[in-house]
């Protein structure tokens, strides 16, 4: 019995020892795991905060570098050398107040320092003595030579303070991307390390690493002469991911074993590393272990230990809440600094938070918008749609994307896309709507410009076809009227013929303007000098105005030459002048100016790139209403009363500039006037003489045989009648194939007068080329009322005449074509 009792006591004793020991071990393990988990969360939050701070510093340095680059952009190195003092002072003013920047260095492609601020001195002679003569051997110079991004190098010892500095550099390039040199900032990492010092505990450290393991900055600063680069093993672990944590062996700098948390800085080959002393983690864990150990050793003091544990737990909760509050404050600060326009509002649409980018986009200060209804910053129509969208967003709980129009403080209307998400916080019971704003104003305007261009292109195709048919009708009217003139002697009938011819001429002018709009007008371009041509047109322009309108010319003698049809240019200027006159009934000014411009990609007008001459005609009249601005180039659109305008003036200007390889734009404001800008491509050709070419005098009269190729019978009959009246013998073919068959068996034909547009699959241009190849002794004269064929006729170098034509002009063109044919035609071959 005693033996059993002793065994039971031993068992109870063993249980009293093993039980608390097992409980103590389990609790120790649980608390250690919890401390490690809390430490990992704290490290992650700290690394996020440190990364954002470093990224903000690098972004501000990138902005400074861009401003320095903009200041010296376009200056040659000799110019920079001559203006060293001036530029150095300007750069000093630029970086004044930015605490981390110690100096700015600008070096040429050979690494020679041209500007170094503030490390320079001015001799009594005025010559700048630079702080260093060359940085060609520096690592950041070599890295910037081959990299288009930001280069960070260091640390170096400052020549002025002896403290460590970092160098942030970027390359200078010309428009073609060629290397022109380097601009660099020497930065003191003190701003970073001062911020780091406030976040870490004794024994902890923070480092800024380059991707190759170089430590650019560290707190605490390592002792002088200590090798502080990270080992290859540590860097391999860091480079394996953009963010993470791992334990490191004792540091070679101070022998402290730490847990490292790291994160790559977005957009840069740099890492932030926050290292926590594992002794600090053990010190945080030890009180819990001690508490449970005391609980296991003495039941008498269990309540005391429990109370101590509760107090400590409460303190940990308080610390957690404090950390959560600090984290929320950090989140709000990061929210405000995000580069994306964002706003947050409550379920009623009242703004609770906005990012700096949102404020910059709309032009407000934060105190002007917080607490205001989001609808206040929308146009009325856009604001009217907001309540239903907010209700739908809260009901669905999904992301909602919609288009709206917001109004900047200046009054400018922006087209935006808003992606919104309804957020419900179960722990706090709060609700909010988080929205991302994307400005698509430029995109919408480009799309609208494309739609307008496509609409004008479609209208142009239609008007070109109408003008073609109209010209054929005018040939019949004009030709028959001319043929009747010799047969009619009654005065009343002569007046009727005069009226018919005047109406035909007006119709021809209308058809010409329609073809100009559709870019199908047959042009005769020549290279002209506007500085010489425009002064000669002053009298013509002045004659278009009332006496109370002042005409001013502002054309530099250095304006580039252009290649255009001189007659069409004069007609375009007269059309604009007439519109300007009607817009200034009470007088005003009409200014004609010309200047050289070089347009790059993305510059307006978007469709033009290269060297252009801009001819600008400005009036001080009534301006154009916004609702009419998109239609002013359309044929027959006019705001003038009936009978005072055809609506074809600006359509001729539009088509002429486009056909000449340029474009036309309008700047206008109601009540302030209008500026019309005509863009013409620069031409390197020599200015052509305007003297007439008398190399081939045109004979008068003729009795040759002419083959008329025309599918419109009425046009063909009129053409034959006109030719017969001039003394020519005529034959007729209705298509190109019939004409070639006739030529193969008839050697009496001297000239073929052919329309360009014909049925049968073979055009007049193709017919002309076939005749030139097979029958060089037969002359060819093409005729068309369709301007789209002009380019093909000019390319084939075939003589032509536009419909409708006068009998005298027709004879001149026939005689000129006959003179230029081969004098002794070869024997014809059957086709």
Task: Identify the notable features of this structure and list them briefly.
831 residues, alpha+beta, five-stranded antiparallel beta sheet, 23 helices
Question: How much is the radius of gyration in Å?
Answer: 43 Å
Count of DSSP-assigned helices: 23
Distance between the termini: 140 Å
**Number of separate strands:** 29
Mean pLDDT across the residues is 76
Classify the helix fraction into a percent range.
Answer: 40-55%
Structural class: alpha+beta
- Biggest sheet details: 5 strands, antiparallel
* Spatial order of the strands forming the largest sheet: 2-1-7-6-5
Give the low-confidence spans: 120-129, 516-520, 689-699, 824-831
Q: Label the overall shape.
A: elongated
Strand content: 15-25%
Describe what you observe in this structure.
- This protein has 831 residues and is α+β, with helices and mostly antiparallel strands.
- The protein contains 23 helices and 29 strands.
- The strands form seven sheets. Strands 2-1-7-6-5 form a five-stranded antiparallel sheet, with helices on both faces.
- Helix 1 (2-72) runs antiparallel to helix 3 (84-95) and helix 7 (278-297) runs antiparallel to helix 8 (302-337).
- The longest helix is centred in the N-terminal third of the chain and has 71 residues, at 2-72.
- The N and C termini lie far apart (140 Å).
């Amino acid at each position: 019995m005693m033996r059993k009792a002793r065994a039971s006591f031993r068992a109870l004793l063993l249980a009293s020892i093993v039980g608390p020991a097992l409980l103590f071990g389990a609790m120790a393990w649980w608390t250690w795991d919890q401390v490690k988990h809390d430490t990992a969360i704290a490290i992650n939050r700290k690394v996020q905060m440190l990364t954002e701070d470093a990224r903000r510093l690098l972004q501000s340095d990138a902005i400074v570098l861009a401003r320095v680059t903009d200041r010296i952009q376009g200056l040659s190195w000799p110019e920079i050398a001559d203006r060293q003092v001036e530029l150095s002072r300007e750069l000093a003013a630029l970086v004044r107040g930015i605490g981390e920047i110690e100096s700015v260095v600008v070096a040429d492609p050979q690494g020679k320092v041209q500007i170094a601020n503030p490390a320079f001195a001015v001799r009594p002679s005025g010559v700048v003595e630079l702080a260093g003569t060359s940085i060609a051997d520096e690592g950041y110079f070599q890295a910037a030579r081959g990299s288009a991004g930001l280069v960070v190098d260091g640390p170096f010892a400052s020549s002025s303070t002896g403290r460590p500095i970092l160098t942030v550099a970027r390359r200078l390039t010309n428009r073609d991307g060629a290397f022109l040199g380097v601009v660099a900032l020497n930065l003191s990492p003190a701003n970073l390390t001062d911020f780091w010092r406030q976040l870490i505990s004794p024994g902890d450290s923070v480092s800024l690493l380059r991707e190759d393991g170089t430590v650019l900055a560290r707190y605490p600063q390592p002792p002088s002469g200590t090798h502080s680069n990270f080992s290859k093993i540590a860097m391999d672990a860091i480079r394996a991911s953009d963010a993470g944590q791992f334990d490191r062996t004792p540091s070679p700098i101070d022998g402290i074993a730490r847990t490292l948390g790291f994160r790559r800085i977005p957009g840069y080959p740099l890492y932030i590393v926050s290292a926590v002393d594992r002794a600090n983690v053990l010190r945080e864990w030890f009180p819990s272990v001690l508490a449970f150990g005391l609980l296991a050793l003495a039941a008498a003091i269990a309540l005391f230990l429990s109370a101590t544990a509760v107090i400590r737990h409460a303190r940990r909760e308080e610390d957690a809440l404090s950390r959560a509050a600090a984290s929320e404050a950090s989140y709000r600060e990061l929210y405000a600094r995000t580069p994306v326009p964002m706003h947050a509002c409550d379920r009623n649409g009242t703004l609770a938070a906005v990012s700096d980018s949102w404020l910059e986009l709309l032009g407000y200060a934060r105190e002007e918008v917080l607490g205001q209804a989001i609808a206040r910053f929308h146009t009325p129509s856009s604001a009217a749609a907001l309540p239903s969208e907010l209700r739908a967003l809260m009901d669905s709980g999904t992301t909602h994307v919609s288009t709206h129009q917001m109004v900047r403080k200046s009054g400018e209307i922006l087209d935006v896309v808003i992606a919104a998400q309804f957020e419900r916080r179960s722990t706090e019971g709060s609700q909010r709507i988080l929205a991302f704003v994307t400005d698509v104003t430029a995109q919408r305007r480009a799309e609208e410009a494309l739609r307008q261009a496509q609409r004008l292109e479609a209208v142009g195709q239609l008007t070109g076809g109408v003008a073609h048919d109209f010209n054929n009708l005018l040939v019949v009217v004009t030709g028959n009227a001319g043929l009747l003139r010799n047969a009619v002697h009654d005065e009343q009938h002569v007046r009727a013929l005069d009226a018919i011819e005047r109406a035909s001429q007006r119709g021809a002018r209308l058809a010409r303007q329609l073809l100009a709009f559709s870019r199908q007008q047959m042009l005769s371009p020549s290279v002209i000098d506007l500085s010489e041509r425009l002064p000669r047109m002053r009298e013509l322009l002045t004659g278009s105005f009332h006496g109370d309108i002042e005409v001013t010319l502002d054309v530099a003698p250095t304006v580039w030459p252009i290649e255009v049809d001189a007659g069409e240019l004069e007609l375009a200027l007269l059309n604009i002048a007439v519109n300007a006159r009607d817009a200034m009934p009470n007088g005003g000014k009409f200014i004609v100016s010309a200047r050289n411009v070089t347009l790059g990609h993305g510059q307006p007008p978007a469709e033009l790139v290269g060297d252009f001459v801009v001819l600008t005609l400005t009036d001080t009249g009534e301006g154009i209403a916004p609702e009419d601005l998109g239609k002013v180039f359309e044929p027959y659109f006019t705001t003038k009363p009936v009978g005072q305008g055809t609506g074809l003036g600006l359509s001729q200007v539009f088509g002429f500039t486009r056909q000449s390889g340029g474009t036309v734009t309008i700047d206008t404001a109601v009540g302030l006037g209008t500026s019309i800008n005509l863009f013409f491509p620069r031409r390197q050709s020599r200015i052509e003489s305007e003297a007439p070419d008398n190399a081939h005098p045109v004979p008068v009269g003729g009795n040759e045989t002419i083959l008329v190729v025309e599918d419109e019978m009425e046009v063909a009959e009129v053409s034959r009648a006109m030719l017969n009246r001039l003394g020519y013998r005529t034959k007729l073919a209705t298509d190109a194939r019939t004409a070639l068959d006739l030529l193969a068996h008839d050697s009496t034909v001297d000239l073929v007068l052919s329309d360009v547009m014909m049925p049968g699959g073979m055009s007049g241009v193709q017919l002309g080329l076939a005749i030139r190849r097979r029958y060089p002794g037969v002359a060819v004269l093409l005729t068309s009322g369709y301007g789209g064929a002009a380019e093909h006729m000019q390319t084939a170098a075939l003589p032509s005449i536009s419909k409708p034509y006068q009998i005298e002009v027709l004879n001149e063109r026939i005689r000129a074509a006959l003179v230029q044919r081969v004098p002794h035609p070869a024997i014809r071959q059957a086709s």
